[in-house]
Amino acid sequence: MSTDVDAPQPAALILHGGLPLALADTQYFVFELIPELNLGFAGNTIEAGADDIVLRGFHLDLGARARAEVHFGFIDIPQLSLQAGIGVALSYDSTSATNETTDESASNSLMRFGTNVGNDPWDIFTSSITALYYFGG
């Protein structure tokens, strides 16, 4: 006995919003705070024989990043800068699967709070510090 299953046709959308606010600046230094929001939706319907399985997902991030940038114009390298920052976010994920034929459903949700630094102490150097060189006039 074989069951025909259609290939999945998923659809997903995520929106990202942030607003950089320069809280302090001098000729060679900028300190900014960036509040952020990520909002995502995903869905799919899988036809498995006589059953239609509806899959849904939702994602929400609320957070902020603090970042400092130093330009090296004071040592005659104005195109070079060094950025360092850290972020914190509250994340919420929710998924569900519903069999529309039998009306059975299952759902799961997860909430997390954390930083973007990482688990190991040296992660602050590999994920939070960036050197930039600006080309052009």
Walkthrough of the structure:
This protein is mainly beta. Helix content is 4%, strand content 69%. It has one helix and seven strands. Strands 1, 2, 3, 4, 5, 6 and 7 form a seven-stranded antiparallel β-sheet that branches. A hairpin with a 4-residue loop joins β4 (51-72) and β5.
Name the average pLDDT.
Answer: 83
Radius of gyration, in angstroms, nearest whole number: 23 Å
- Model regions low in confidence, pLDDT < 50 over at least 5 residues: none
What share of residues is helical?
Answer: under 10%
In terms of DSSP E residues, the strand content is over 45%
Please render the helix and strand layout as text:
Elements: E1 11-18, E2 21-25, E3 29-48, E4 51-72, E5 77-99, E6 104-115, H1 123-127, E7 129-133
Antiparallel strand pairs: 1-3, 2-3, 3-4, 4-5, 5-6, 5-7
Which structural traits does this protein have?
single chain, 137 residues, mainly beta, seven-stranded antiparallel sheet, 7 strands, elongated
Condensed summary:
The protein is mostly beta strands.
